[in-house]
Amino acid sequence: MSTRRFYALLNPILYKRSISQRNEGYTIEWAAMNVSAPTTRLILKAGAPPAACGGEPWQPFALAGIHGYSEITRLLYEHGVDPCSINNDWKNDMDDGNRENREEGHPLSMPASHGHVSVVNLLLKYGMCPDFTIGHNEERTSIHLAAKNGHLDVVRMLSDARSSINAQDGNGTTPLAFAAWNGHLDIVQFLLSRGADPNIATEHEGTSLCMASHSGNIDIVRCILDHGATPNPSYPDGQKPLFQLSRAAQEGHEDIVDLLLSRFDYVKSFTKPYQQAILCVAALTGRTTLLTELLTKQNYDPNMHIAVDRHIHIFLRYKSLHQPITALGWAAECNQPAAIDILISHGAIITSPICISPDNNGAGIDTPALLHAIQEGHKEAVITLLAHGANPDYLSEALLTAITNPPIFSLLSHKADPTGSLPKSSLLTYAVYSGNVDTLRMLLDHPKATELVMDSISAETQTKRR
User: Fold this and answer.
1) Where, in residue numbers, are the ANK repeats (predicted)?
2) Would you say residue 55 lies in a domain?
């Protein structure tokens, strides 16, 4: 008997044995993940349920979509799997949940997310709605996922199937915004050619123009501008003033800042205080000519506070880590000594009080510019601010913030008092825990070293008593 004949007789027996041992799910899973249509066909012929699961987190039909095997998708469909079922979450109910599972969605969204055109085409023929959303609170459609991951052919196919070009997910994000954020120029061009609206704003990130400006692809920014994108002077709740301009500036995308400034007259168009974030943009990018013009000819307030994003929460150990809300703070944060000089000469307050501004609906703590410069390690900005009279003893934080930067610590130690009160401990203790030998040596060489050591001992004693 030939080997081929032997296997032809043995295989049906083995597959029936697999089913009797309830292992058919593992067989179908293996076939779905390894493009083995013959194995799928044989195990189904032996009587295995098409939705039988093994050890994978998803049912075989979903696995075939994830891995892009249209032939297996067709076989499972022909054996009774309904891809349009709204009562199926496509997960393996036997899965213990311990395996890492980054997939999400339904039979159409999964192959769309991975760019499997043949499977997407097949499922659309089976009647799947192109705008069926994935679960949870994201409410993303297949075209969202395809645009996000850069699969132009899938985006085109879904668009041809009348998927909504301007569909918004749970955060208000459109397919165009996803493509812009992730740098997919070809998809941005295609969606705009199909009528995508570039001025739809998301809940937290602004419009597609804002996302493109942040991601740094100037070709995408230019493309969106050429299709009617307009600057949003502020977010609906007063947050994120001139978001597309300020985000590009913060990320260091100078070419995009130049492009936006050439396309829009931010000075004449936006006159309310919370819309004048261009002052901060000029400061943080070192555009001294623009900065001087805003202060002298346009009468911008050098101490104007811009809004901070209350939707983004970051664990902050010290107040000095808060995002700047003044032009001077941004100039210090980005090491722009010339901008610092200009702002202070026009009345910018070096150490402004903590306040809440009524004009911008939520601006919060205003950290002194000196602390921003120290935190970022900008020696030039620190020297400039000290020359203008910045207080190195502000809440005793300046030296504490500079512990890991000996050159800046050296500058401050000539003027600051190292014995100032600090929360829970002394400056010497913080220096020891930082492991920075140079900083520790400077403290021990300081004229107040003895007092500093005694303060440290006292602080440690009080801590132990607690």
Assistant:
1) 138-170, 171-203
2) no
CA dist 234 to 48, 131, 340, 427, 449, Å? 59, 31, 26, 42, 51
Tell me the pLDDT of the chain averaged across its residues. Answer: 80
Residues 359 and 306 in one domain: yes
Co-location of 269 and 247 in the same domain: no
Residue 89 lies in a domain: no
Question: Do 290 and 187 sit in the same domain of this protein?
Answer: no
Q: Which pLDDT band holds residue 201 (cuts at 50, 70, 90)?
A: confident
> What is the rounded CA–CA span in Å between residue 432 and residue 136?
48
Q: What domain range includes position 378?
A: 265-390
Give per-residue pLDDT as tens, 140-187: 999 999 999 999 999 999 999 999 999 999 889 999 999 999 999 999
Res. 84 pLDDT band, cuts 50 70 90: confident
Instruction: Report how far residue 178's alpha carbon sits from residue 205's, in angstroms, rounded to the nearest whole number.
Output: 11
CATH number at residue 223: 1.25.40.20
| Closest to 390 measured CA to CA, from 416, 409, 363, 364 | 416
Give the residue among 416, 427, 431, 424 at the shortest CA–CA distance from 451.
427
Of 361, 390, 419, which residue constitutes the final position of a domain? 390
Mean pLDDT calculated for residue range 259-264:
93
Per-residue tokens: 98: 């311990």
User: Is residue 235 one of the residues assigned to a domain?
Assistant: yes
Residue 267's pLDDT is what?
86
Instruction: Check whether 443 has a pLDDT greater than 90.
Output: no
The two three-digit tokens of residue 251, written as one number:
């990320």
Name the pLDDT band for 24 (thresholds 50, 70, 90).
Answer: very low
Which string of b and e fits 18-43 if b means at least 16 CB within 10 Å? Answer: bbeeebbbbbbbbbbbeebbebbbbb
